[in-house]
Amino acid sequence: MNKTLATMALGALMAAGPAMADLVIPDLSYRTGPYAAGGIPFSDGYNDYFTLLNERDGGIGGVPVRVVECETGYNTEKGVECYESTKGEGALVYQPLSTGITYQLIPKVTADGIPLHTMGYGRTSAANGKVFSNVFNYPANYWNGASGAINYLLSENGGDLSGKKIALVYHNSAYGKEPIRTLEMLAEKHGYELSLLPVDHPGQEQKSQWLQIRREKPDYVVMWGWGVMNQVAVQEAANIRFPMENFIGVWWSGAEFDVEPAGEKATGYKALTFTGLGDDYPVYDELRKYVVDGGKAAGAGDQLGAVQYNRGLYAAMLAAEAIKTAQEMHGVAEITPAMMRDGMEALEITNAKMEGLGMAGFGPEFSVSCENHGGPGLVGVVQWDASTGTWNSIQDFMPTDAEVIGQLIAEDSAAYAAENNIEERCN
Amino acid sequence: MPEQLVFAMEVILNGLMAGVLYALVALGFVLIYKASGIFNYAQGVMALFAAMTLVGIMKGQVPFAHLINAIFGTHIHYFGWNVPALLAILMTMAVMVLLAWAVQRFVMRHLVGQEPIILFMATIGLAYFLEGVADLMWGSEIKTLDVGLPQGINLWIDETTYNIFDYGFFIDNLDIVATIIAALLVAALVAFSQYTKQGRAMRAVADDHQAALSVGISLNFIWVMVWSVAGFVALVAGIMWGTKSGVQFSLSLIALKALPVLMLGGFTSIPGAIVGGLIIGVGEKLFEFALGPALGGATENWFAYVLALIFLVFRPQGLFGEKIIERV
């Protein structure tokens, strides 16, 4: 009897023995609901990159990556539930792809010591690492986007926008309202007249806004849209014959599915970007070889090179590089969320590194520091060509107005620090 | 003529057109409520399901492809053919009839005689189930829908109004088509309910389903028919809205636009849905035009409900709804 018990105990010990832990990456995705069209390709790209690392390299530093997907439906409450249900698994970093969820998670991740990466969305002033210890929004944020749009229009107008009329058509939510303050400050600086046109969720009906645009004849329309709002706006702009080349959307309003429903009439529409276009990068050959052809793709495998897929892929690459940095810094392969945070704060993305990953020129070069969690804020511009069904780059990654954005970030983060009794770090 | 007055005229015309589109969605609610006393929460999702099915058939998409591929390890997504729009619409209609039969056979038949709130809850369940089935069947990506309807500014109206007011009005060709189709639809529905045997049976069921049953009218048949007609109305609404924005999941949210129309027009009146739609369309657009800029914009969603509430206070049964008389 004793012998049997001892054998069973040994067997149990061996079964529960020192198995290598995974690197856990939660994916707060939204594959259902009104914003699924944007959520699906992003999540597919995010998943596929980690699958590639697992299949080709056996993970990162020899430790496999385990992506834990949780459906949020782009709903803030569900997003918080997903966070609470996954953080206990050793989650290294969250990427919720929602500004609403981000705002709710900022105090939680700070208290739990888990990093949050909000790439090109979320709370813009989180770029100030002195106040937001666990939040990162590199390589660009909304205010970079607003400034990038204005800089592009400046370049089109010989550096002078005085007297020009610019209308902002925006999603009437925390996300859509983010660029307003920046655009107002830039209006004071450059002398253009700004008009604000909010569109209520989900944005299926925008007749009033576009009739107003038709009456007031702004020189340019800048859009901060997401979901169906984008497709309807492009269609309505085409309907009123607004010149498409004078219509420019933020990066979340610049995917293929945003312009395709409008057909040929969408040609000329422009969008901002902080990631590369298409699938002409060696990393895609690897993805096809190790992920898609092996039937391991998160989706149907037909989105490779699409704008939002590329963004998900890029976000995963940045997370993977931060893991590598953390592993090197701490000399261990199995890192903790706190180590991951250190890795993100010391992240350096160089052209040589991107070339080594088969993603040369896919994003801008940048480095993160204790003070600066937002990166350089370089913004590119792309233009849609319906005849070929492709986005074409018309402006490389260019600097934005650091003076104005820096001031706004300092003001907003100082207010947040005062409200939450946060002592500045990095001193 | 003062410039603002000319602009207001353009806004009113566009409001009328938008109202027709709202009414198209509201019509589906009215039909089912009138015949069975059920407030069909799933009407918006039915529009989405119909539009997704139409695009799927037109593009030769394999239904449940992801499921099939996951189970059998295959990689099939398309049959490799395209179906002409008209034929695809007829095939979609057949699918909607099948759906109506399934709803009746597996859900509603078991709930006959239950409280209205139970029936309402059943349609909430149906809405979410149908949304999931549509996703599984056709995928979640945005689908471009082109059944050959014209879109964009109507140049004749633009030029004519320009010659009169020195300002060309914007009217979308798609809205004009929607108006014509809605008018034909209402005429057909009225003719159907007044002059056909099935239509009269439908009205009899609406008046008193027990009395209708006693004279040999099949409740099951009538309810399948009503859900089928509501499915057809959902298909028309799905085509109109889907052509505008592409077919995607937010299409199901157009039901939110129908609610104030129903509150205003009454749940039991087909003309009420149309007139209610027009009042809501014009009211919200005019309010946004006149006061929107001063109030920060985006007033349409909430103002439509305020307008409906005002009507509700004075006429609880809606503009054209049947007056509720309780005798003791």
CATH class of the largest domain in chain A: Alpha Beta
Overall domain count of chain A: 2
Q: What is the CA-based Rg of chain A, rounded? A: 22 Å
| Structural shape of chain A | globular
CATH architecture of the largest domain in chain A: 3-Layer(aba) Sandwich
Q: What is the molecular shape of chain B?
A: globular
Report on this structure.
- The complex is a heterodimer of chains A (427) and B (328).
- Chain A folds into two domains: 23-140 and 278-376, Response regulator (Rossmann fold, 3-Layer(aba) Sandwich), CATH 3.40.50; 142-273 and 380-406, 3-Layer(aba) Sandwich (Rossmann fold), CATH 3.40.50.
- The longest helix of chain A is centred in the C-terminal third of the chain and has 24 residues, at 307-330.
- By secondary structure, chain A is α/β, with parallel strands linked by helices.
- Chain A has helices at residues 2-15, 36-57, 76-86, 99-112, 142-156, 174-177, 180-190, 207-216, 228-239, 256-259, 282-292, 307-330, 337-345, 351-356, 402-419; strands at residues 23-29, 65-71, 116-117, 135-136, 165-171, 193-199, 220-224, 247-249, 270-273, 348-349, 366-367, 379-385, 390-398.
- Chain B has a domain at 38-256.
- Helices cover 71% and strands 0% of the residues of chain B.
- In chain B, helix 1 (3-36) crosses helix 12, helix 2 (43-58) packs parallel to helix 5 (116-138) and helix 12 packs across helix 13.
- Chain B is globular.
- The N and C termini of chain B lie far apart (58 Å).
- The model of chain B has no long low-confidence stretch (mean pLDDT 90).
- Classes of the chains: A alpha/beta (427), B mainly alpha (328).
- At the A-B interface, helix 2, strand 6, helix 8 and helix 9 of A face helix 1, helix 5, helix 10 and helix 12 of B.
List keywords for this structure.
A: about 425 residues; alpha/beta; Rossmann fold; 2 domains; 7-stranded mixed beta sheet; 13 strands; about 45% helix; B: about 325 residues; mainly alpha
